[in-house]
Amino acid sequence: MKKTILIAELVLIGLFSASCQKPREIKPVKVPPQYDRPLPPGQLALRKIINPADIPDFTFACYDTSNLRSAIANSLNYLKKPSSKQFYPSCDITHEKAVASLKAFEKLLESKLFGDKLNEAIRQKFDVYISVGCDDRGTVLFTGYYTPIFDGSLTKTERFKYPLYKQPADLVKGPKGEILGRRTSAGVEPYPSRKVLEVSNSLAGSELVWLGDAFEVYIAHVQGSAKIRLPNGKLFGVGYAASNGHEYKSVSKAMLEQGKISGQQMSLAAMIDYFKKNPNEISAYTQINPRFVFFREEKGEPRGSLNEEVIAYRSIATDKTIFPPACLTFISTRLPYETGGAISERPYTGFALDQDTGGAIRAPGRCDIYMGSGDKAGSLAGRTFQEGRLYYLFLK
Questions:
Q1: pTM, full prediction
Q2: CATH of the domain at 254
Q3: The domain containing residue 288 runs over which residues?
Q4: 178 in the same domain as 274
Q5: pLDDT at position 340
Q6: pLDDT tens digit string along 147-170?
Q7: What is the DSSP string of 63-99?
């Protein structure tokens, strides 16, 4: 779902003169990691760290715990709901263990321990688990997502003619919210793809809000939420309600392969700029992705898949079929920062709560960091594409 795709290096063949008669040296192709590699049967996504030397240093992250208690409170609120118990045990972690771990960490924050003292207390009280990653060695690809802000209208106008749709009445979900398909006279059948839905106009009458750009509609689909600035200046929030159940396919990857944008230039901003110059190509590319998202009105701040508010840099999205929802995590990677109008990358460590999912966030090698709302957050999210480590903390 993200904006930059790692591509394999080309084979480099040395050029030699005919007089040298040396064999040509061929360097091997560097094959990119398969970040979405599924877990082997029977394997868990988390592995408990036994060697204390392998536990990360939390000290730097312990100097900034702003908003962390709010994020923990959101997770605890979710875990109070009886429906949350159906997702446990997960990775051998029970529901009771998840709740107790968050409450214990909350008490540590209330104790006002700081820096190295908080780091020491965490290491004494908590076991640390690491995501096995895409390679069984902990490699996780971190990307970013955000809440865009677009101009729009609750009614169709000459300017605003591209709709976001409500969940249709014929969509069928399973007991855990999974998409089963479409209800028909013959039973439940797979829901149509993005292309079929757009070409057939079969969703007419279930429009929720209208935007002024077809690619903005697609961005809202990928990010899962948006804020729409209405003509009267008020913001109308929309959030994820459901999808058509199709697997996500990358539009940016297709654009790279076809040479529309180079690998070094690829970003969400570059895609927006390209489609502003080439609006007639939008549907040809967006329909490569068969996944289609339906929305509902969302009051207040954006919410993740746990139906709790997500907080910038304190909420992450992972594959909830293999990771325990709502739990405390620790991120170690590199993230982009904006200073003086220029964007550069720095090492980043921080605590976050696992509170969301994503259409492209599958398997233990993927994690999406929520970066906030608006253009600045979008610029940073669109440039986030780094490997790192993802840890989970549970009370001993």
A1: 0.85
A2: 2.40.240.50
A3: 146-297
A4: yes
A5: 81
A6: 999 999 999 999 999 999 999 999
A7: G--TTHHHHHHHHHHHHHSGGGGGG-SBTTB-HHHHH
